[in-house]
Amino acid sequence: MKRQLERRVASVCSKPGCGRITAGPHSDPSKSVSVGEAGHITSAAKGGPRYDETLTPEQRRAATNGIWLCCACHEIVDADSSPFSADVLREWKSEAEKRAREAVELAKKRDAMPAFVTLLHRSMELIPDRSLARSMPLLFRHVHEVVADVRAPCARENAVDLRAVVVEHLRARNALWGHLESVPDVELAYYGIAHVPLAIHMGHLLGTRMSVHYAERERDGNVWRWLGESTTPFPDLKVHQPDDLGDTRDVAISVGVSYPVTTHQIVSSVGEMPIVRLAVDAPALDIVRSRTQIEAYSSTFREALERIARVDSISRVHLFAATPMCLSFALGRQVRNTVHPGVYAYNYRRGGVRPYSWRLLMTDDPDAAAQPRHLG
Q: Which domains, and CATH codes, for the chain?
């Protein structure tokens, strides 16, 4: 039974975000090492974690009552069982088996799968190179990685070197285009941890000339979650637009997905102006779960931007996006300088006098990006 549980999850710990491989080679070529354990979903003995008195002894011993975990996670879920109910463990088991099943199918098809160039974007912390390829080795054939590293220009929150940011983004974009053009049938995968305006700007520079795939990092570990196509329903991104934008020069767009964006936050950052609001009914972290959802939300944003562009008096759009990184990148891809007014993306800073402390113009001109950081 233990071997069956292990094999059904490909010898990987079932706890979401752990991803630890639990079997490997021993120094003795005839042996192997295991750091995994078969745990009980409901305890085999009365008084144990999650004991269910309604089960028979045979049901307690059955594989359906078991879950494969690494030693550390097994100890955690049994030492304090209150956060880890039987239903939670069953969900872990189901998802782990689903991931293993998908990995087996992907492995069968791997040679026929497209090759990927990955774009790693980092401005807030050091994400190791090739993290996506290491996290999901069976998901794609990895050809090359381009890194856009703007941690140094962003080291001082109140004095971001926007010119240096744009220079590095342009270097990464040009390197990326070179690889995409030199390798036939290659596709792009975007991931990393960066400030929202920087993710928007990177997307803007790349535009819509290529297909893009996305991965977001799980919050409880250095594991990347692939955002694939999905038919699972997701919350609508609703648009609330003023009836009349009037003869204003400036208009704000707020996109509330991870968090709400309030009128107070906008007005205290840039002053009074009409606000076009895009928001889900209940903003929350990790609400974006698929590439399908990203494309739907970015399409809604593009339509709102195009309606604004039809108002002749508007020359500046101030974008306040509370969005996950991959969606931020996708929003930037929709901005076209030849069609839309100038778009400034704002960065949120908790506790500042201005909630949105600096902005970045969507441009490929480093000198233009370094112009005054606030409206005025």
A: 2-108 (no CATH), 110-227 (3.40.50), 238-369 (3.40.470)
